[in-house]
Design a protein that fits this description.
Layout: H1 6-18, H2 21-46, H3 61-65, E1 67-73, E2 76-82, E3 86-87, E4 90-91, H4 95-100, H5 114-138
Antiparallel strand pairs: 1-2, 3-4
Helix pairs in contact: 2-5
């Protein structure tokens, strides 16, 4: 491995920032995390894999309403997941009720499907971000 002076390291790091390599890597990582959250939430709604299906599927509108989003924000990148928006033209009003429950008025227990996905995203975030950051640095000759 070739030696690198602190000045050369600084120059290459600035290049990684200036060319957008680091920002692009963080967006790639956020997309991977968001996809993982989406996959887990949808499996919890419809079943499959090692996930336990919590809800009886009638129309599939709840699953269709699950959407993920990645956006750049001032301090970095944000990955999010939500449900209940429009699914094939219909708004899914019961999405929140399934996630949080309504114990007082109707005795409906919480059957979270988004929270497990968010929790999984949080668990893998450091590992995924670190790997994508390393890939970004490799594009400018830093790291192996």
């Amino acid at each position: 491995m070739a030696e690198m002076t602190p000045q050369e390291f600084s120059r290459r790091l600035k290049m990684a920032v200036r060319t957008g390599a680091i920002g692009d890597g963080m967006v790639r990582a956020a997309n991977l995390i968001a996809l993982r959250m989406d996959n887990i939430a949808k499996r919890r709604v419809t079943g499959g894999g090692s996930s336990t299906r919590l809800l009886n599927v009638r129309t599939g509108k709840l699953r269709q309403s699950i959407k993920w989003n990645v956006k750049r924000i001032r301090s970095g990148v944000q990955a999010s997941i939500q449900a209940g928006g429009s699914a094939g033209g219909a708004v899914v009003n019961y999405a929140r009720i399934h996630e949080t429950g309504e114990p007082r008025s109707k005795g409906i227990p919480a059957r979270p499907y988004l929270k497990p996905g968010r929790d999984a995203g949080a668990r893998i975030a450091r590992q995924v971000m670190t790997e994508e950051f390393r890939k970004s640095l490799r594009t400018v000759g830093i790291g192996t």
